[in-house]
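Section: Multi-chain targets

For targets with more than one molecule, the full set of components is provided together so that the structure can be written out for the assembly as a whole rather than chain by chain. Components appear in the order listed by the source. The example entry contains two components.
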Amino acid sequence: MGDFLLTIPWAVVLILLPLVGAIACFLWPKKVNQLGLITLGGVFLSVVGLGAWLLENGVYHHAVGGWNAPLGIQLYADGLSLVMLGITALVGVAVSVYATAYFDRSQSERFWPLWLFLLTALNALFLSADIFNLYVTLELLGLSAVALVALGGGKAALNGAMRYLLASLLGSLLFLFGVALLYHTYGSLDLAMLSEQVESTPTVWMALGLMSAGLLLKTALFPLHFWLPPAHASAFSPISALLSALVVKASFYLLLRLWLEIFWPISGSVAGLFGVLGVMAILWGSLQALRQTRVKMLVAYSTVAQIGYLFLAFPLAMGAGVTAWNAVIYLAISHALAKAAMFMAAGNLLRFGGHDRIADLDQLAQRLPLTIAAFALAGVSFIGLPPSGGFIGKWLLLEAALMQGRWDLAVVMVLGGILAAMYIFKVLGYAFTEASKPSKVKTVPVRMEWAALLLASGAILLGFLAPLILPLLAIGTPFDAFSGNEEIMP
Amino acid sequence: MEALSLLQWLIDGLIGIGLLWLAWRALFCPELFKAIVLFIAFGLLMTLAWVRLKAPDVALAEVAIGAGLTGALLLSSWAKLRGFDANKGMGAREKNSEQAEQKTKRPFFHGLYAIPLLLMAVGLGYGVLQLTPYATGLSAVVAENLDASGVSNPVTAVLLNFRAYDTLLEIAVLLLALIGIWSLGIRPSVREATPDPVLDLLTRFLTPLLLLVSAYLLWVGAHAPGGAFQAGSVLGAAGVLLILAGWRLPLSLAGLPLRITLVAGVSTFIVVAVLTMLGGAQLLAFPPSQASLIIFVLEITATLSIAAILAALFLGSRPDHSEKI
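Its structure, encoded as tokens over all components, is:
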């Protein structure tokens, strides 16, 4: 039985199953909740299956159509892909359960096909090793994300969606331009083949600039974050959770892959620029979060800040290699869990009081204890307090910084933690006090409270799981090739 | 001989300058309608450029999708926007005053934007000049494997065999675009179109012709420029014409039957993908002896779906939700 399960091509299932689910939801709108949940369950099991396969056999490689590179498209999965797929499935299941209670009939009919298309795009992106195919997955991802934002209706959501659409399209086009340049020069679209061939030429530098700029725009790194707060804050809460937790991570993952595989050997020096932008993002995002008067805007700006941490790894990886990359992936997955939980909690507050004005949170700690607990636990991970996933990530990153005497980056990390504590406690403080004008309240479905709380607990639990997750991440040694280790320790 | 090459230089030069001029005019034309017409003209000239570059497949796609359908979509959005402005005179006037406000700031900011854009243009221009004049490309590898692909047109071989997985996802993108637009819940326009006699007559002539062209493009795709995307967009254009002439899908067909047609293309792809995997082969690996047939089936359903999706995009709202919402 176990042998049979290992023969199933889980990676292919991960791409086709959500696509089939999306089509089924579109064809039979009456059954969307059941069809969607079954799909999510299947996707979750497939990630487990792929994990088991990878542990047994090392990296996964599949030549689509039986055509090897450079003619055909290659699917590829290593530890990094697996961890990203895993976090996507985990957040996906929680958000899906939450969504069954959050949306009404007609909303869920529109939500499910789009969300399953988004899931298809995410899984396909994490599994592809072909830069043109990656462009197609980016298009699928961008379009479904924009359509999900627009579901909110209303002026704010439509405006946010339009801005997001333009930013996302511009990002895709820049990426495609880079793809064309690389293909023209090297006659291949395969990441592995390209990584063997690239040299430092003006064309490659131009491709590097264009593709990085496109992906930075999609990842919303300061100062290209302008589209994120309106889009993420105006969407429905479960959708904000998906966007903040998963969609921006996907373009970050792609950027990381490109750098590790193609661009690192020629341009390690540019990494310093990413570090500077990361620092600015942490400070600017945190300060803006502190200034907000609405919970969802605050949480959205906190995403801008947290994305900054991910880019600190680039300047540090030169000397610290694997530690810095491990740190950043740990931060990315903790942020995914915690941010999804926080947006769900914000959704609960909105449902309960009909508003998310921070000043009028009116003793919610007593009236919605589970939700406020979820918010607080997620906050613990952002601040980086032990024992949370955020703590492990920041600890590893600090270690990498101190190892190289980068005190400036270490100070910014600590400062970012303090600022995060300030904006988290700003919300919590109002949740414990009585508001001046009481508002009418509605009940919040139990499922919505528990989904948020469980995900937030997951972010805390990640703090204990490092010995389990770091070896998984090391499958296929995604970070060894050009981590800089060779130069420091010959 | 020399005179001929001079003539070609002249034509290429005219196309190049014309493209730049049309692009500039389309971007900076204050009237939306004019800008759209200029954009369509740009698409047509672009088609000529592709023909000159000896890329007839791209030229066909450009004229059918870039100029034809995108133009039609833009014009239909323009018509809807105009109706919106007329309904809400107040809103339009407010917008005008806002625009006037913006205009006072404009010259300064335009100057600021120009600097980084100019720098970028110079950088890109330098980079493009550095490119090797002839791409390494994969034409040789494609030609080597063409016999096993089931078709003799290399473009079709790439799209439906070597990189069929890309095409699967691209058809999914097209379907997603329609689902995304439908999910906005736009009300269908209640106004019944009164068929203009000229349009009515034209539709009667053109629809059968477009059907024929579409079938030809689909068939010829196996060995010459053509294929599902081009055939689908021509068929879609026939649908757009019918919609313009006031024809609507009967309500009995607008529900599940329409949705099945819309998803047929991508679903066939998925079925083929699953069958190849069950047969123990790689994903979407066609046995060379049956590749030709598989590709033809994929192309037929893809053509139908693409046409249905494009016509539905033009209509904009869900045809089965006329009384709901």
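Strands of chain A lie at 60-63, 74-77.
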